[in-house]
Amino acid sequence: MRKFKASSKLLLGAALVGFWVPQVQAQSTAPEDADESAQSKNNEIVVTARRNDESLQDVPLTVNVVTDQKLKDLNLFNGSDLAAVVPGLNFAPTTPGNTPTLGLRGAARGAAGGRLDPTVQTYLNEAPVSDVMVYQALYDIGQVEVLRGPQGTLRGRPSSSGAITITTKRPDLNEVTGYVSLAVSSLDQMRGEAAVGLPIIKDVLAVRVAGIVDRNDGDGVRSLFSGRKSEQELDSWRVSVRFQPTEALDINVMYQDFKSVRTVLSQVAGTGYQGPSTPPLGATAPLAGFNGPAISAFDRLSVVDVPLVRDEHHTNLIGQVNLDLGTHRISYVGEYNKTRNMNSGGTNVGHIFPIPYPDPQLKTLDGRSKLITSELRFETTGADFWDYGVGAYYEKTTSDNIVDSVASYLPGTFGNPRAPNLASFNYNYNLILQGNFPVSWKNQAIFANSTFHVTPKTDFFIGARHVWYQQSSDQIGNLLSGLSATGLSTLIPGNSTCAFIPASAASSAGFPSTFIPGQCDITIRGFQLFASNPLVSKEKAWVYNASLTHRFSDDMTAYLSFGHSWRPQTNNLNLQSTDSRIRAFANTSSETSDNFEVGLKMQAMDRKLTVNVAAFYQKYDGFLFSALGVPYVSNTTTPISVASAASLTVNADAKVKGFDLELGYRPSKQFSISGNINYARGRLSNASVPCNDANADGIPDATIPTLASFGTEAVRYCNSNSALAFQSDWNASMQAEYNMPVSNHTDAYIRTLINYTPKNKFAPGSFTADSYGLLNLYIGARANDGQWDIGAYARNLTETEELVGQGTTDISTPPIAQSALGLARSAGYRSVTLTPRREFGLTFRFNW
User: Fold this and answer.
1) What is the pTM of this model?
2) What is the mean pLDDT of the chain?
3) Contact predicate 466/493, CB 8 Å
4) d(CA 65, CA 82)
């Protein structure tokens, strides 16, 4: 059970103690932030959601704005923290321990056997970037905008449920600016970031350098056997140059280097191995619990001896050029990105093997990719009746995913095959897979948009993008030669050299074993497992949207909008079958959707009260749905057996309906409060999808079907109304602040941030997660001109602990342990994920 679950009354009471500034209000900014704030002097929020500076109240879509000041005030260090202030934004793994993915408005990218475009695209300085990289560290940021609903006519990549734009701070052409920020916490975090901007030639050329160093203990999971802990070492730096030789020409170039090494321990819960074991003749089955004791989900323990190490290195070069021609403007955005991701270790997740894999650890992934994008736009700059823009976009990505891992363990792993036992375990008998899974894609598009100012208060917008998309996926792999024990003795007269075992096309002649005394071994010859046979797809698609906006007054705007989105097809690699019914999954179709939205944005009481509300309905044709843990008949093995696809992506019709509500109230400079509620119910439309159905009743089961139970079928289907993302249908947040002067130059403050998540029937692992609330508290003092700030904070102050995700099935015992020792399939543990731990910390910031 959880240690403590905060009640709604407790959280509400805590919120009334101190209050945080609403999302639509900007906090007092540091001197260097004066021209960076999202808010002008008349409290108008300025956003670039439609690639132009305009008031948030005039934008016909829901946009959540997170300023740099808010990132600092609430210590929003990464993507998970950002999700805390944007209800409905989900940044979590599809299964525990995996890389987090973004979800918004009830839809998220699932796991896939091939490349799968996200439902939410991320842009850094208007160039598409990897969300895995950018959300690990948010530093020296000017503004973050979360755009809800289909996107794609105004930015490079189409997306079905939203986009997030992140703008870094630009150099100031006139003044020396900068800051230094330090944070330490009870969870072994030490984080320092700093930036300095220098004008080289006043009004013409300036440079800004920023960097961050972060050391933390990740999710706090510890290995039961080795004592290793999860941790992260993150280092990043950025150089930005601004060149404005004339008032008409503005050139900005940014280079960023990002490195992260994460030690990941798969957190588990369960009883440990309990059997039943059915050992073959001569084998000695291990006792129950041999791989570890009973572990609670709230122990934050792992049974992995050697952790998974994820080593990432990303470099980004982004250039932006704007040329003002008076009534028109030419804009260019170009990017070059180079990424390398290396994973090693972390393979003995169920601790079935009693000793760790010897160093050096095999690289289970060595991913290398390059990305080039270019976008050119020509547009008007404020016509009386008709504003228009046209342009072209080009993107090319090449990626190699190199694998060097154990494909299978062979007889001899547990000693003499005629008398295998756990004590004789060794790692010498295996087949190593060396492979490459190259993926490349090209996205070319032309686009146009028009805004008709029908009346001084009414605008009609229409935009379209035509995409030519090409994708290629391949798999090339070889099994290296490996050692296999025969179970034949050298002690029989005449057998001492093992010469009686002849060579064959598949193996060498026998020879005395080095690792099992008195036994004969053979070498299994290596062979090509996958020959190059690229899956190439070419598609053409339209993405378009339209909106009608009417301003009833300066403080009230209503809009109607329609958006048509598209996501390219994907593929499912590594399906172990030549059956046409299974090979049909090799390529999916593309996904399309239509979204209808109506919204109202208003301010009242001299703009002290803000109310923004939107309702939407989105219909997907062929949503790219990832079915997890799907068993199927494999006819490539001898004998034919049941294989399982960890994830199988298929097309399925779906619908999403919901609303967004944002309220903000600031009666005085000292007191403010805001709240957000997001409801998005995304479901499949009783779609027929592949599933784990052991008894053919059309209902998913927990047990694995036998080969005989399939009959003449190759895979089973279930009619499903599953959710499109592993998150609850709605959630809410509230932020508040109270501040007061304590001297002529100093203010004291207290802030709260509260998040509430109701019961989630579609949590990762197909279980119902309980509702919970998280309370963060911030207290401190700051200079009333924003020059310095000293604070203390508590995250998850009430120490709420809830299980929010778990593996779809128990961790499996390795096939060699099942065949040699007769172990049952379940290792007795399942991967789990909890709410964040309670954390106390101190912060210091100084701006100039």
Assistant:
1) 0.91
2) 90
3) no
4) 11
